[in-house]
Write a structure and sequence with these properties.
Elements: H1 10-17, H2 20-47, H3 55-79, H4 89-115, H5 119-125, H6 128-140, H7 148-164, H8 177-201, H9 206-227, H10 237-263, H11 266-270, H12 275-288, H13 295-312
Length: 333
Amino acid sequence: MTVPSKAAGPRDSAWFFTQPKVLVMVATLCCLLWGSSYPAIKIGYALLDITQKDIPSKLIFAGYRFVLAGLFLLILAVLLKKPIFKLNLRNGGQLMLLGFTQTAIQYVFFYIGLAYTTGVRGSILNSTTTFFSVLLAHFIYQNDRISPRKAAGCLLGFVGVMVVNFGDGLFDFAFTLLGEGFIVIAAFVLSAASIYGKRISQSMDVMVMTGYQLGFGGAVLLVAGYTTGGAPGAFTPASIALLGYLALLSSAAFTLWSLLLKFNQVGKVTVFNFLVPVFGTALSAICLNENIMELKNLVALVLVCGGIWLVTRSPQARTGNARPGTALARESR
């Protein structure tokens, strides 16, 4: 796969990222990276001796990840000669609000929730982001109403989320606020913040916007963690390497995903979202030795993936009507 050179113009980039093979390969890579974050975060807790109840240290761990991710993106933006310093007070305020919600608040819930549930269940539950986005868009955008197909997809997805929370018995519902509840809340916060981010991206470069919001959100998490007594274990080469991987994961996956969204129909790209819980559950089972082969996990995974496919599938009649460059990036992980 040949990546366009720096000198390539918008038309060259549009041609490259609309190639079917490129779309499949890059979208699958992004979903693989996002799916790998579930076991990676839990492994990070173990490497840094962060216990389940040590919330401040979890915030510090998340803070370092996103500060680094933001720096990676801003450095890349400078190398690509993007204007990273042309910000006014309005832009700065928007970026701070986006970083506070999409990165800081969301990941407070996500990192705590993941400590109280398994990586398999966390990856399935967090996929509710897609369904929350559909519901919120219905009330915000006049041209993005819920259709019968989308409604069926949302219902199917939420049934899948219910299934994964059942215990051994039919009426044994294993759901805790700090675990599964916080994962779902994080998904809702991400959905709402992504809609706000889409609005900002109309007047700002996506890479620059994401670099600043990740960096600011990470700084908020660091301050919150240290001021509340956080003290993760000493960093080792293994934990530093893992932290670097998580930071690169966030910056690389978002940038590639944004490029796909920019030059393709949104529906053609977001349909690949169903791969995130697939990779998340598989990698959690492999890396964390978690049991994925429970019937409820498999049923829930099928239901959630089917729901996401229904929600994001473009109507057949519109498939050929897309114009490169019309879709704005609207999601970050």
